[in-house]
């Protein structure tokens, strides 16, 4: 136990039992788990002095034991004298346990590496790769993330499938950027119906998707009314999908999370367009 991080010990000995009791969990494997921890440091003054950012990155490297990446402004904000693409801080994403005695595998450091391996060894396979309409959470800018898709395309990917999003304008903007960047692969839009209150925080946290005002109003209105939230969530997804299909999306993908009832309800709302 001496080599186990203190926070992990606290999680296992205190937090897990408390969650089991508070949430009435019968199976220990159903206790909520941390998927990742993102350590962010904002350095607004770095615009005028790059040494401040270097110092911040060094501090974060010492604290986390990992090499941080620079975070950049996604848009210009005149009031704060911030320009799009300007370095404004740094961050590190922590996932899982690191084993000091076992070196990390050099295989498939990126999705494009895996795609290229499959393409070379199993050329008859179709390779569907992920893409992010609002940019990968670790990408400096959406434009940079879109540019990186070329590595997947050149590595043998045959189709792109987006992570979920709640505002179709993000998809159309992403698709326009992708085509201008030379991405010719068909792109299917991924949509997830939010039909339960328990889905909201977890889904948004994992996907980093932004929430349009129409969606947040729906959640606020029905979050304490399960039946109405279910119906409103299905309807919201149906309207999203109808707009995407009519807007010429190459394909659509429903993240139904193994819920056949939800899938059937959504299908009823779009089958006339299929």
Measured by DSSP, the beta-strand proportion falls in: 5-15%
CATH class of the largest domain: Alpha Beta
**Could you tell me the radius of gyration in angstroms?**
22 Å
- Do you know the CATH architecture of the largest domain? Alpha-Beta Barrel
Helix and strand pattern: HEHEEHEHEHEHHHEH
**Global outline:** globular
Count of DSSP helices?
9
Mean pLDDT across residues = 82
Distance between the termini: 57 Å
Largest sheet: 4 strands, parallel
The low-pLDDT segments are none
According to CATH, what is the topology of the largest domain?
TIM Barrel
Tell how many strands the DSSP assignment holds: 7
Order of strands, widest sheet? 4-5-6-7
Counted up, domains total 2
Helix content: 40-55%
Look at the helices and sheets and give the structural class.
alpha/beta
Short description:
This protein is an alpha/beta fold and 274 residues long. It has 2 domains: 6-94, Ribosomal protein L5 (50s Ribosomal Protein L5, Chain: A); 111-273, TIM Barrel. It is built from 9 helices and 7 strands.
Q: What is the topological layout?
A:
Blueprint: H1 6-23, E1 37-42, H2 50-64, E2 69-72, E3 87-94, H3 111-121, E4 128-131, H4 142-155, E5 159-162, H5 168-180, E6 187-191, H6 197-207, H7 213-222, H8 226-246, E7 251-254, H9 260-270
Parallel strand pairs: 4-5, 5-6, 6-7
Antiparallel strand pairs: 1-3, 2-3
Helix pairs in contact: 3-4, 7-8, 8-9
Structure description:
The structure is a single chain. Helix 3 runs parallel beside helix 4 (142-155) and helix 7 runs antiparallel to helix 8 (226-246). The chain is 45% helix and 13% strand. Helix 4 links the parallel strand 4 and strand 5 (159-162). The chain folds into two domains: 6-94, Ribosomal protein L5 (50s Ribosomal Protein L5, Chain: A, 2-Layer Sandwich), CATH 3.30.1440.10; 111-273, TIM Barrel, CATH 3.20.20.220. The longest helix has 21 residues, at 226-246. The protein is an alpha/beta fold and 274 residues long. It contains nine helices and seven strands, in the order H-E-H-E-E-H-E-H-E-H-E-H-H-H-E-H. It has helices at residues 6-23, 50-64, 111-121, 142-155, 168-180, 197-207, 213-222, 226-246, 260-270, and strands at 37-42, 69-72, 87-94, 128-131, 159-162, 187-191, 251-254. Strands 4-5-6-7 form a four-stranded parallel sheet, covered by helices on one side. A three-stranded antiparallel sheet has the order 1-3-2, covered by helices on one side.
